[in-house]
Amino acid sequence: MNPTPPRERICMLTGGGYPYRRDALSGWCRTLVEGLRRFRFELLTVTDREPPSAPAYPLPLNVGSSRAVAIGGRDVAKNDRSESRNERNERRRTEAELGKEAAGLICRGLVGGMDDAEQTFADGLRRVAGHPPVLSSLPLADALLEAWRTGDSLPRLSMRDARTAATLLRHALGAVAVDVPEADLVHCIGGTTPLLTALGGRWRQGVPLLLTEARAPVARHKPHEERLSPAVRTVLRRFRGSVARTGYAEAGLIAPLSAYHHGWALRHGAQADKLVQVPAGVDPSEYPGAAEAGPEPAVVWAGSGGPDSGLSALLASFEQVVAALPGTVLHLVGVTAAHEDHCAEQIERTGLGRAVRLHPLPADPSDRYTRGHVVAHVPGPADPPYRLVEAMMSGRAVVGVDVGPAAETLGDAGVLVQADDPAELAIAVVDLLRAPSRRRALGEAARQRALNHFTTDRVVRVYGELYTDLAAPPPPPSFELALAVPAPRAEPPVTVRWLISERQDG
Fold first, then answer.
1. CA distance 189 to 26
2. Which of 82, 172, 86, 161 is nearest to 135 (CA)?
3. N or C: which end of the chain has fewer CB within 10 A?
4. With bands split at pLDDT 50, 70 and 90, how would you rate the model's confidence at 63?
């Protein structure tokens, strides 16, 4: 009897997401895992918060393991061998020297001003990945102050700023020490934290890396960083950019979600021949569309409800909607338990009261958008376009804010308004609420566009080909006869073959 053929093992690496959190990106990950049962998945999520105790999704049989790791926890690469006092002292001296060297390289790479700044940063990061115990002794504050003197047009960096930045950098760098499970390929999905872990696995274990680029520009700073000084924010912004560039250099392939993400990756050092654009997709059966519920005007917005979710801009606009159409209700769908208090506080400030209703993320996706006549797509700056595709597939008219990939995703199947203009958003929503025929026509057009371009079957098929290309074992060595005239290739590689097919289909 022939043994069961081995399956390629894929480490799916996220930043606090699947399978421990229910959100749009986690749903996308779940689609891949359940749709690619010929692969064995080892799931790893890395977070800077307390890791969840149990998965939020049931795990299919092709999942071999599932782990959630907090940065700075005990589940990191380490050396457990016993040693004598002399060996311990020698090791500490070696770590101190290595830590000083690594800190200097990282900080000089962050400050820039030299042709090889990115390579300098990567060399420092590689040293930390190769010997994680140096994390505790990295003299980052001193290295930052020294490197800062060589930079141009930088905000003033005080000793206090340097220590603050060093603390934040050391914590972030803890992700590079997290062990990656044994696999044939690491598929990294998310931002800086999981990418650092993927780079550590790449350098320590030599495992190939596939990077799904779903982030907004890392040049921005996060809302909770507003209280930090300009110098510290500059350090963090440059750190995220340097990690992204290093990831692009190390990845075997990069799969941006849109032309927007594709262009951003190119501008930040990604090689064009590594980029394979794979748009977002949702399962049409989970969003079958439904008739409008009731005559009372209602608007739906889907998001976590956190400070960085677009909620504040939405509420500012909805105040004007209610003024124009009294009795309109706003449904906030998918608000997480961690952000309910923040949502309630924001609503109380507007005085909207019963005009706004909170809903936890429904277990059945088909219920997500059926409460509204119009969907207001007001994303946070880091949100990928999954919610927009879901709304389109649900057959609801969408008013979208023109940020990130919204324009290319929505096309002419909805209404697009400028960002940072609550009045324009309110006018567009009110116009659709007053025009039933037009909004139904837009809803039908949006669903048809989603069916044509943003379905999960295409996503699963393409990622299956990418996994096969990167994770399959190399072909056995062979001898070739050199010919004066090379023979033509009979068939292009898989990653080129499906692209050609896609263009012909289009």
1. 10
2. 172
3. N
4. very high
CA–CA distance, 458 with 171 (Å, rounded to integer): 38
CB 31 within 8 A of CB 459: yes
The mean pLDDT value for 257-262 works out to 89
The SS3 call for residue 112 is coil
d(CA 401, CA 282): 21
- R_g (Cα) of the chain, nearest Å: 25
Cα–Cα distance measured from residue 243 to residue 192, given in angstroms and rounded to the nearest whole number: 7
What is the tens place of the pLDDT at every residue in 359-380?
877 767 778 898 899 999 998 7
Assigned token pair, 499: 């692209």
ω before 208 within 30° of 0 (cis)?
no
Between β-strands 397-401 and 415-417, what pairing exists: parallel, antiparallel or unpaired?
parallel
* Token duo for residue 384: 């990928």
DSSP string of 328-389, one letter each residue? -EEEEES--GGGHHHHHHHHHHHT-GGGEEEEPPPSSGGGSSTT-SEEEE---TT--THHHH
145, 96, 102: which is closest to 122 by C-alpha? 102
Residue pair 331/357 in contact (Cβ under 8 Å)? The answer is yes
Report pLDDT digits (tens) over 450-504.
999 999 999 999 999 999 999 876 666 655 554 444 444 444 445 544 554 555 5
> CB-based contacts of 369: which residues, under 8 Å, 6+ apart?
287, 300, 302, 333, 375, 390, 391, 394, 396
**DSSP state string for 435-489:** -HHHHHHHHHHHHHHHHHH-BHHHHHHHHHHHHHHHHSPPPPP------SSPPPP
DSSP-assigned beta bridge partners for residue 41: 10, 63
What are the C-alpha distances in Å from 367 to residues 72, 86, 331, 334, 391?
Answer: 39, 66, 12, 11, 11
**0.70 exceeded by pTM:** yes
